[in-house]
Amino acid sequence: MNEQPKNTKDIKSKTLQGFDSPIDRLRAIVNQLRSPGGCPWDIAQTPESITPHIIEEAYELVEAIKTNDNSLIIDELSDQLLHVVMISEMIQERGGFNFDDVARHCSEKMIQRHPHVFGNDTISTSEEVNLAWEKNKAKHSLHNSIVDGIPNQLPALLYAQKLQKKAASVGFDWPSIKEPIKKLAEECKEFSDAASNTHQAEEMGDILFTIVNICRKLQLNAEDLLRNANHKFRSRFKQCETIAKKHHRQLSDYSETELDALWDHAKKCEG
């Protein structure tokens, strides 16, 4: 990497040219933003303060990927890259690691966890790759349990699916989808038989957890499925509102039977 500029003036003269790679240029820009005379907002930030932005940008990246629009994907990926460079810069200012340490660690980890590519192991299927990956992670993990390390900030459905996947990686799993489907029926009966609201709430949690397990067995992402269902409901509900407005009515004016008919009509319009 080129030698870092000594002061803000030197940085300003080099942010547009003179770098061997785009990443070096980006690092210099971030350094300038964080230096005296830079951006007051960027200077005030900490790894903790930008955490909400990291989570938000992650979802925006997912949405961009779904559009298959390269310009949108590049835009969102650049936001992700900025966070990596920014946090690395912040930690380096404290006398800790820098971006090169992060990139080096990532490279070493990828080599370590792919012995079938960079070593002598032989793996032929993606399922075998997943098993080997989890075993390798557990071998070099800093956590006491295989289910430690799952971020608590994850949405509950996604957390449940990752939790179940971790347990399944060491054989703690039903052999087929028949068992969790049977378990779902049992949990629904327990919910129906619950004697109190507190017990019902607990049983409903078990129902949701079991549904996630069924999704996982089908290799479906429960979080994505619910998000898609949310989008579908939102679209149909807005269609119902549009239809009602055309008849100069509010949805609250409709009877239950009328609402059912309106919903069916909205579904047909969507189709």
Helix-strand layout with pairing:
Layout: H1 8-14, H2 22-34, H3 40-44, H4 51-67, H5 70-93, H6 99-112, H7 115-118, H8 126-139, H9 156-168, H10 178-193, H11 197-217, H12 222-246, H13 256-270
Helix pairs in contact: 1-2, 2-5, 4-5, 9-11, 10-11, 12-13
Kindly describe this structure:
This protein folds into 3 domains: 8-112, Orthogonal Bundle (Helix Hairpins); 143-220, Orthogonal Bundle (Helix Hairpins); 224-270. It is 69% helix and 0% strand. It contains 13 helices and no strands. The longest helix is centred in the C-terminal third of the chain and has 25 residues, at 222-246. The protein starts with 7 loop residues before the first helix and ends with a helix. Residues 1-8 have low confidence and may be disordered.
Keywords for this entry:
about 270 residues, mainly alpha, Helix Hairpins, 13 helices, about 0% strand
In terms of quaternary structure, the protein is: single chain
Helix content: 55-70%
How many domains would you count in the coordinates? 3
> What fraction of the residues are assigned to beta strands by DSSP?
under 5%
The CATH topology annotation of the largest domain reads as Helix Hairpins
Count of extended strands: 0
Listing every helix as H and every strand as E from the N terminus to the C terminus, the arrangement reads HHHHHHHHHHHHH
Radius of gyration: 26 Å
Helix-strand category: mainly alpha
Low-confidence stretches: 1-8
Largest sheet: none
Mean of pLDDT: 88
The top-level CATH class of the largest domain is Mainly Alpha
Q: Count up the helices.
A: 13
Instruction: Please state the second-level CATH architecture of the largest domain.
Output: Orthogonal Bundle
* Overall outline: extended
Measure the end-to-end span. 56 Å
Under CATH, the homologous superfamily of the largest domain reads MazG-like
